[in-house]
Write a structure and sequence with these properties.
The complex is a heterodimer.
Chain A: H1 2-12, H2 14-49, E1 56-60, H3 65-70, E2 82-83, E3 99-112, E4 115-122, E5 126-132, E6 135-141, H4 143-146, E7 151-155, E8 168-172, H5 173-179, E9 186-191, E10 194-205, E11 214-217, H6 218-225, E12 230-231, E13 233-238, H7 245-252, H8 259-266, H9 271-281, E14 285-289, H10 291-332, H11 335-343, H12 348-386, H13 394-421, H14 424-429
Parallel strand pairs in A: 4-11, 8-10
Antiparallel strand pairs in A: 1-13, 1-14, 2-12, 3-4, 3-9, 3-13, 5-6, 7-10, 8-11, 9-10
Helix pairs in contact in A: 1-12, 2-10, 2-12, 2-13, 10-13, 12-13
Chain B: H1 2-18, H2 20-54, E1 62-66, H3 74-81, E2 89-102, E3 105-112, H4 117-120, E4 125-128, E5 136-140, H5 141-147, E6 154-163, E7 177-179, E8 186-201, E9 210-213, H6 214-221, E10 229-234, H7 238-251, E11 255-259, H8 261-302, H9 305-313, H10 318-356, H11 366-391, H12 394-399
Parallel strand pairs in B: 3-9, 5-8
Antiparallel strand pairs in B: 1-10, 1-11, 2-3, 2-10, 4-8, 5-9, 6-8, 7-8
Classes of the chains: A alpha+beta, B alpha+beta.
């Protein structure tokens, strides 16, 4: 009997029920889209902020204690350098997936065609092979991504993978002007007694001191400085979480943290914990946060997330009011029907249950459609703004479900109670 | 005619008053829609300005360098800074670099104005305090490590220079001045004793310098020669920055201005993304909200099919029924729009205060826009159910089918 009545309602009043379902679907889609975008916006903006370049620098420990005191076996340890094969070790740390780019470099003061200039040897788009848990991986990394603000004035980026051999270089605009170099030229680079002949692939404008530099591949700089297999410094760009109290406390000295705090800190992508893990992976190095980048990232991220959460709150509020509004009016409309049910002897609980189940069924149907719609909207937002899909979180789905059920209940129960309090005879007579 | 109009007004008003609860439902829907519209659009327009100020935490985005060999004079600096609008200029810090020796180790000394340095380098992390008076110094963390300095320690910087007739030697003890017996030239190893007020951590090359006040560096070197570099932090869009830089290079003699590309180029990339994010979010939410308002209005009007049938049965013509119901809807739309613009402004203000702790710019143009949009949406959403009700045979409607 109950099911027949419910089915009857849907058959006879399908238009009204469809209207309720449509509104719920719209509300649910706003909620789904906004919650998912909000939960993912931190990661997305963080990736965008990577255009500012590296936020961690890795340098050899100033007093290379390990090598000078304990005389590490075999290798001629040099306090100024880190072994090149150690560079890949940073991909083995806990937060390895957060490391977007890194690039080791070796510097030298050289003369380029007779003009004095600093030379930097580094990776441009180096393909690095590494082993993790017995599986072989490959990864492309280098300064092409770490210097996104460079303007290539002439020629093109040095593409390590496409060019054979390593006799290539890129020259800063100021140096190119001073030494009369243009793209395609061959230049002679001298450091002390060592000489290399390099082909200039491109001229860049960086807007800072690097305009006076010459950039080349790492092996060239290693040969010029006589430090084959080593580098001096490494820039690392990592996606980090904004700093909070715990991070500030840990930055001073991680060993002062309690056990739980330490675990929480170690397993959060704070810039300080990533630095700490890099030092664990490469013991002879010291990793430091570049405060200009790391600090500001945190601030921008925090503001963006706060802005998005407040906009989300506003739209959730709107969606909620819209839904509860319509649900209330949908229930109120049925005053005569409810009065009739009561007049023929239905108990209050039975009537409430009947109306609630109908409304709930409608809402849930609408919410399912709305979730799919919201998914589509979230993807549209992700694709158009960030060119990447927005990750759908289980939490958003859960929140939307709770929200819709709560809103439907809040919208319908007071209305049902009001109707039940009225006397059936009055309602049926048309007094209301 | 006059009577008819009075009847019309009475009917509209009576229906709004009598059916209070239903009208509140409809009005609420319109108000919520209008609030979201005006609030979000206001935020959308204010985001670039507000975020741009946040991006200043990356520090200086313009640097002044001297044109030619002479240092930057105070006048040139003032003239350069005057080019920027006062509300956009966050601050500027002049730097003067000198080479000195501490315990015979060469150290770069930077003279700066400590009062303004945090406006151009907000990311500086200082253990201890910023120097508040002459005779105090801020030591870069790397340098402090090499020299073994702690907050509160004393350190002496020594600067050697040739003493000529122009040199002001007042306050220089006699033992610091000596004459080269071979050339007969007089030199001075002037010593400046400094108290370490703070240790500076940045993770960059700043950690290798010793920072002192500008008067200290002038007294140490016995010369007032202006500044080597001036860092400027300006909250503005990239095109505006480019204009300012061009204007400074053209109009201020002795000053060459440059954009710090790393900061400005990256900022415009991220800001464009952010603005398009808010834009598309606003667009999606607005479309959905407007549809939501429309369905609510449609439902409210659809309920009144019986009333429409009754009027028709009593002999009202279709045009007058449509006109009456529409004006009711439009009135709702108008009132909802007005309330919504006020609420939307309050919402935008609350968000702006919470996120950026600064107030939002009120845009008067948004008020008529919001009202027009809500009138349009309510009007359109009323039209469909009214038309369908009018077209139906009154007998059928009144019978309840």
């Amino acid at each position: 009997m109950f099911f027949r009545m419910v089915r009857g309602t849907f058959r006879r009043q399908w238009k009204k029920m469809l209207m309720v379902a449509l509104t719920v679907a719209l509300g649910a889609s706003i909620a789904t889209a906004m919650l998912n975008v909000m939960l993912d916006v931190g990661d997305k903006i963080n990736e965008e902020l990577k255009t500012y370049g590296s936020n961690i620098t890795v340098t050899p420990k100033s007093e290379a204690v390990i090598s000078s005191l304990y005389d590490v076996e075999g290798e001629e340890a040099n306090a100024e350098y880190i072994a090149e094969d150690k560079a890949g070790e940073i991909l083995l740390i806990f937060w390895a997936n957060n490391i977007t780019d890194f690039s080791p470099e070796t510097r030298a003061s050289v003369t380029v065609n007779g003009t004095e200039a600093p030379l930097v040897g580094t990776w441009f788009n180096h393909r690095l092979a590494f082993k993790k848990k017995g599986t072989d991986y490959q990864r492309d990394t280098g300064i092409i991504n770490l210097r996104s603000w460079w303007d290539i004035k002439e020629g093109e980026w040095l593409n390590e993978q496409a060019l054979s051999g390593d006799g290539y270089a890129m020259v800063g605009e100021a140096l190119a002007e001073a030494a009369g170099i243009s793209a395609g030229d061959s230049v002679t680079v001298k450091n002390g007694g060592k000489t290399e002949t390099l082909t200039v692939v491109g001229i860049y404008e960086s807007g800072d001191d690097e305009d006076g530099y010459i950039y080349t591949t790492l092996p060239v700089a290693q040969r010029l400085t006589g430090s084959e297999g080593y580098f001096q410094k490494m820039e690392v760009s990592a996606i980090t979480s904004p700093e909070d109290e715990l991070a500030v406390k840990a930055a001073k000295n991680p060993s002062l943290l309690s056990g739980d705090e330490y675990d929480l800190w170690y397993c959060t992508a704070y810039v300080s914990s990533i630095c700490f893990q890099i030092q664990e992976a490469i013991p002879e190095a010291s990793a430091e946060a570049v405060r200009q980048i790391a600090d500001s990232e945190g601030k921008i991220l925090e503001k963006t997330q706060l802005l998005m959460s407040l906009i989300t709150l506003l739209s959730l509020l709107g969606a909620t009011l819209g839904i509860s509004n319509l649900v209330t009016s949908a229930v109120m409309e049925r005053s005569q029907e409810l009065a009739l049910l009561k007049a023929v002897g239905a108990k209050n609980a039975q009537v409430t249950f009947l109306v609630l189940s109908e409304i709930m069924l409608t809402s849930i149907g609408g919410a399912l459609v709305g979730y799919l719609l919201g998914y589509a909207f979230a993807q549209i937002i992700g694709r158009t703004v960030f060119g990447a899909s927005v990750e759908m979180s289980g939490m958003a789905a859960f929140l939307v479900a709770v929200l819709i059920i709560a809103v439907t209940l809040v919208g319908s129960i007071p209305a049902i109670r009001t109707l039940l309090r009225l006397r059936p005879s009055e309602v049926l007579h048309g007094g209301r | 005619m006059n009577k008819k109009r009075r009847m019309f007004i009475r009917m509209v008003v009576a229906s709004l008053v009598r059916r209070r609860s239903r009208m509140i439902v409809a009005l609420l829907a319109v108000v919520v829609g209008a609030t979201i519209l005006s609030g979000l659009v206001m935020i959308y327009y204010d985001v670039p300005r507000q975020m741009s100020a946040q991006f200043r935490s990356y520090g200086a985005n313009i640097i002044f360098t001297p044109e030619g060999d002479a240092a930057i004079s105070d006048e040139a600096l003032k003239a350069g800074a005057a080019v920027f609008p006062a509300e956009g200029l966050q601050g500027y810090t002049p730097y003067r670099y000198e080479n000195t020796k501490i315990h015979n180790m060469p150290v770069t000394l930077a003279g700066i104005d400590f009062a303004s340095v945090l406006t151009t380098s907000p990311y500086w992390l200082i253990q201890g305090e910023l120097p508040a008076a002459d005779g105090q110094t801020l030591v870069g963390a790397k340098l402090a490590g090499e020299l073994g300095l702690k907050v509160g320690d004393q350190v002496s910087a020594v600067n050697s220079f040739e003493v000529t007739a122009d040199t002001d030697t007042s306050g220089i003890p006699a033992y610091e001045i000596y004459t080269d017996p071979e050339t007969g030239e007089t030199f001075c190893d002037h010593e400046l004793s400094l108290t370490v007020a703070g240790i500076l951590e940045t993770g960059g090359s700043e950690e290798e310098y010793l920072y002192v006040t500008l008067p200290d560096i002038a007294s140490l070197t016995r010369s007032e020669r202006g500044y080597d570099v001036v860092e400027v932090s300006v909250a503005a869009m990239q095109e505006d920055l480019q204009n300012y830089v061009g204007r400074i290079c053209d109009t201020v003699p002795g000053l060459s201005a440059r954009l710090v590309k790393r900061v400005t180029a990256s900022e415009s990339t991220v800001l464009t993304k952010l603005q398009s994010l808010v834009f598309i979010v606003t667009a999606v939410v607005l479309v959905l909200t407007m549809i939501c308002v429309a369905t609510t209005m449609t439902a409210v009007i659809a309920e009144r099919r019986k009333e429409i049938g009754l009027r028709k049965a009593l002999g009202a013509d279709e045009a007058s029924i449509v006109g009456e119901f529409m004006s009711e809807g439009l009135l709702l739309g108008g009132v909802g729009g007005i309330l919504g613009s006020v609420l939307g402004y309050i919402f935008a203000q609350v968000i702006s205060m919470n996120v950026f702790s600064s107030s939002i710019t009120f845009r008067p143009l948004l008020v008529p826009l919001t009202i027009a949009a809500s009138v349009l949406v309510t009007g359109l959403s009323c039209l469909i159910p009214i038309r369908s009700a009018v077209e139906v045979d009154p007998a059928l409607v009144l019978k309840g089918e």
